Predict the structure of Pyridoxal 5'-phosphate synthase subunit PdxT.
Amino acid sequence: MSLVAGVVAVQGDVSEHADAIRRAGEAHGEDVTVREVREGGIVPDCDLLAFPGGESTTISRLIHDEGIADEIVAHVDAGKPLLATCAGLIVASSDPRDERVDELGVIDVTVERNAFGRQRDSFEAPLSVDGLEEPFPAVFIRAPAIDEVREAEVLAEFDGRPVAVRDGPVVATAFHPELLPDDRIHRLAFFAESAGVDASVR
């Protein structure tokens, strides 16, 4: 049976995430159908979900306006995998430290926006990520950092600060794993044994 993957498509690198999910699925022998999520009613049919970056206040407003926000929370509550990246991490966190962001609270962390600088300060760095044998070439663009980790597990740090975490079925990164051909973060989030993909949906 084909897995259905949703990519929240209100902002961000939608096609890049879709391509990475397809590659990751193919590497694991999985047939994956990717759907773009721009309105309510799609997420409940998804086995996997990617939540790309963009501008966190805008993303927060749009997913609530379109009826997507509660569906993302229900997706996680059902134990289905979610990968949240950059601004997706901010909106998915339990404390974005920004009253303009109506957070989802599915990752038990506090986040600092733009912790590594603005757009002109973008950079790439090799990260040691728990679950990956070789360093991952992480791209940071206006990246947040995680200030406080409560129930979540830290998967990677940069400059002494957490930049990738797992909290139950959720994997979240401060960087953009979709921007390079390396799909290992998507494999880790969606197809690793501990990622929460129910074998019954395969």
